[in-house]
Design goal:
- This protein has about 180 residues and is α+β, with helices and mostly antiparallel strands.
- About 35% of the residues lie in helices and about 20% in strands.
- The protein contains 4 helices and 5 strands; from the N terminus they run ααβαββββα.
- The protein has helices at about 1-20, 55-65, 100-110, 165-180, and strands spanning about 85-90, 115-125, 125-135, 135-145, 155-160.
- A 5-stranded antiparallel beta sheet has the order 1-5-4-3-2, sandwiched between helices.
């Protein structure tokens, strides 16, 4: 199941990078899961922007922890070639007093930090938003109780949309597609 979700996520990332990764409406119309990653090595932003994977990770973590979230551990593994292109920060929904309020506060902090909202979708109590800044896109999800472990699911996943990350995402997608068959 994880491989299938990763393949869908990689496909979404390729679409973001290949034709929809501009600063404008980069994630409009893409509703798949984004890559889940937890890369740790600093890397230059593939987009040529001033942000790198560590800067993006720090911005997400600072906004989320200031809003009352703690990180859920362990994060999913990501192929080594994608660690400099993706950031995954998943909140421990069970530890948040009011996860929706903390989500909204996190999103506000990201916007105040220069992230521009490019998409927002709410269905019932679930919300999915997209933001972009410096060649990176963040997808932010909040789904109330009822997910796998019965706690609120809150996740912030960032993808570098620059040309340096396009090839690794396409290669990973090709590998996942080939291995799935």
């Amino acid at each position: 199941m994880r491989k299938v979700r990763w393949a869908a996520a990689a496909a979404s990332a390729v679409l973001l990078i290949a034709g929809c990764g501009s600063e404008g409406d980069s994630t409009q119309g893409h509703d798949g899961d984004a890559p889940s990653a937890s890369g740790s090595a600093p890397a230059k932003a593939g987009s040529g922007g001033s942000l790198d994977v560590e800067a993006v990770r720090k911005e997400i973590e600072a906004a989320a922890t200031a809003a009352g979230f703690t990180a859920r551990q362990p994060a999913d593994d990501v192929p080594p070639g994608l660690k400099s292109c993706t950031v995954r920060w998943q909140a421990d929904g069970a530890k948040a007093t009011d996860s929706r309020k903390s989500y909204d506060t996190t999103v506000t902090a990201l916007v105040n930090g220069g992230w521009k909202e490019s998409r927002s979708h709410e269905e019932g109590q679930s919300v999915d938003k997209a933001f972009n800044k410096g060649g990176w896109n963040i997808r932010a999800w909040h789904h109330p109780q009822g997910r796998v472990d019965g706690t609120d699911w809150v996740s912030f996943i960032a993808v570098d949309t620059g040309p340096a990350c396009e090839k690794p995402f396409q290669e990973d997608l090709a590998n996942k597609t080939t291995n799935k068959q």
